[in-house]
Known about the structure:
This protein is an alpha+beta fold.
Amino acid sequence: MFEQIASFPHLLQAMQRAACGKRSKPGVSAFLNRQEKSLIQLRDQLQSGTWQGGGYTVIEVRDPKPRRISAAPFADRVIHHALCDVVAPLFERGFINDSYANRVGFGQHRAVARYEHYRDRYRYVLRCDIYRYFPAIDHAILKCDYRRRITCPRTLDLLDIIVDGSNPQEPVNILFPGDDLLTFAGRKLGLPLGNLTSQLFGNIYLNGFDHYVKEVLRAPYLRYVDDFALFANDIATLERWQAQMATYLAGRRLLLHPRKTFISATAEPAQFLGYVLHRGGMRTLPPENVQRFRGRLQALRTRWKNGDQNETAIRQRIQSWIAHASHADTRRLRQTIFRGGWFDPAIEGLPIRAAWRFVEQRTTERPRGESQQQRPCETEQQQRLPSCQIALPPEPGGSWTVWARERAFRMGKAKAAPAVRFGREATDGALNEHNIEEN
């Protein structure tokens, strides 16, 4: 196993995956500029046993909740990818089918669909969450877990280096039966949130618990990281399962979250993995999710106006939210937010020519009965202009009046169509502030 992990072709493939979407970042670009020399150096360090992980960059995130994200150096991330590509398939065959986090072919949306499948068949659900899961993972227990499947000594040494090199996490001072005041001094806890290896270790650490719930309790069950749900037709069964799971997790030095563990009726709307799930298959977004996105959208508009953000970056950031929202019943919500703009669902699904005509018809109505031959021919500039540019504002710092006149002249129109920016409208040369705030 180790010879495959430390081979140059495998490290090259791992580097390409680790750099995907991050090539413009300073640390990544510096590594890629001398990639051959850097990869040879990594290979030599691994084969000689001298490799040690670098320091982490800690990022404090407060949206939607306070978290500490630890970013490893790019060279370390290359090794993480190379290691997981070889090690993960050994554990994948032992995972249950209802564990959906950080696995190819599973994921968040399949977990939501499975939740709805169970919800429609049972009356009650037990929702559980583990208290500070990643900061509470015990290193000694984790090392025993992956030694049950891996016997390659050098691969085990590499795994131990990554686990022991974890930076300090949020303290979890919980005493379990048999502990004393010196227990915390002799135990090392916590994995950095942000490592690819931490995602794999998180699934390995709860794999035994998954089999316990499925095979011993025989409960309808699904898990996504540390958020899991059990279903039954009576509350007493769920309460018994909760007590048994708490006992099992205590042996793994984990604790059920006292506030996020509860029993509710499946007929009630439930918030699960970023969606509010209703009976009948309807999904909506939580109000706080929409409110946070509106705030980010307002900030992006300000940056666009000031020239601090380009169109490509804006599209990437907004499309990520749209990809999440499109799995819920949010078409009308997205039409309200992006009305007439770049991401309006009514325009997005149309071809370029159809989208152009749709925007033009909002302001210029052709007489009824007018044939295609009687309509004025489109200019060459008009044919080459993509539909998304119709919704662009003037250049940052430019004049709306000058831009509207230039656009009208370029299009050969007596009047310019309203300019739309992310769903904000402006009349001929004058910005309607009331409509901006309202939209």
